């Protein structure tokens, strides 16, 4: 297995979920470190510097969002957050604090593995590590950041300035869920009551112009109630 070089740290207090995740990751050849609370998780992080952290938000000793804040002060390691349905607000906060992705409990094996692969790929091939990268491509979609030109199947896509800015922002963060408020902040600077509606209207136009049919060949996923994600494969 070529995954062997990746070390993944699980921080989760529920032992059955912790061992479930450990089992499926080890079966795929990942090295797994597991901890049952925030303090132990932090200790393991600074001893082993894992390539990825899977973090439960509801920990017995510290809030998962606090954990993210501390890690993000000095590290870019990808963080996937595990949250319960009752923690919707925390999930959004976690993403705004710098978590890369989230998985809602209960989750399936394939879903978790896909998120893990995407987060690892992003940290290695993402824009952050390739400064100076001036173009983005995803299947038939190409974005040239210098000329601000978007093409689909080599045909130019006519986007408004705002639509282009949204597409460019999502592509620069491909693989990562961007919350509504993060997008609104980046595009318009301020948010008001109409901001989400304005964003949704722009997204609907973008999808139409890119020729994305509902459910088919998605370049951008709509994370209901949370935000949007440009795929990175
Ligand atoms: Ca928990």
Automatic annotation (TrEMBL):
Gene Ontology cellular-component terms for this entry are: cytosol; protein-DNA complex
> Which UniProt keywords are present, listed alphabetically?
Cytoplasm, DNA-binding, Phosphoprotein, Transcription, Transcription regulation, Two-component regulatory system
**Any one GO MF annotation of this record:** cis-regulatory region sequence-specific DNA binding
Pfam annotation, one family: Trans_reg_C
Q: Provide one Gene Ontology biological process annotation.
A: positive regulation of DNA-templated transcription
Q: Which residues form the Response regulatory domain?
A: 7-120
Is Transmembrane a UniProt keyword of this protein? no
**Modified residue annotations for 4-aspartylphosphate:** 56
Chief localization: cytoplasm
Boundaries of each OmpR/PhoB-type domain copy? 133-232
This molecule's function is given as: May play the central regulatory role in sporulation. It may be an element of the effector pathway responsible for the activation of sporulation genes in response to nutritional stress. Spo0A may act in concert with spo0H (a sigma factor) to control the expression of some genes that are critical to the sporulation process.
Instruction: Please identify the protein, giving its name as recorded.
Output: Stage 0 sporulation protein A homolog
Say which species the protein is native to.
Candidatus Anaerostipes avistercoris
